Amino acid sequence: MTRRTPLMLQIVTGDPRPIARQIVDGIRRQIVAGELEVGAALPSVRGLAQQLAVNPNTVAKAYNELSAEGWLDTRAGLGVFIATPRQRLSESERARRLEEAVQRFIGDVIALDYPADEVLERISYELGKCVPRKTA
Amino acid sequence: MTRRTPLMLQIVTGDPRPIARQIVDGIRRQIVAGELEVGAALPSVRGLAQQLAVNPNTVAKAYNELSAEGWLDTRAGLGVFIATPRQRLSESERARRLEEAVQRFIGDVIALDYPADEVLERISYELGKCVPRKTA
Amino acid sequence: MTRRTPLMLQIVTGDPRPIARQIVDGIRRQIVAGELEVGAALPSVRGLAQQLAVNPNTVAKAYNELSAEGWLDTRAGLGVFIATPRQRLSESERARRLEEAVQRFIGDVIALDYPADEVLERISYELGKCVPRKTA
Amino acid sequence: MTRRTPLMLQIVTGDPRPIARQIVDGIRRQIVAGELEVGAALPSVRGLAQQLAVNPNTVAKAYNELSAEGWLDTRAGLGVFIATPRQRLSESERARRLEEAVQRFIGDVIALDYPADEVLERISYELGKCVPRKTA
DNA sequence: GTGGTCTAGACCACG
DNA sequence: GTGGTCTAGACCACT
Question: CA C79 → C1' F1, Å?
Answer without folding.
Answer: 10
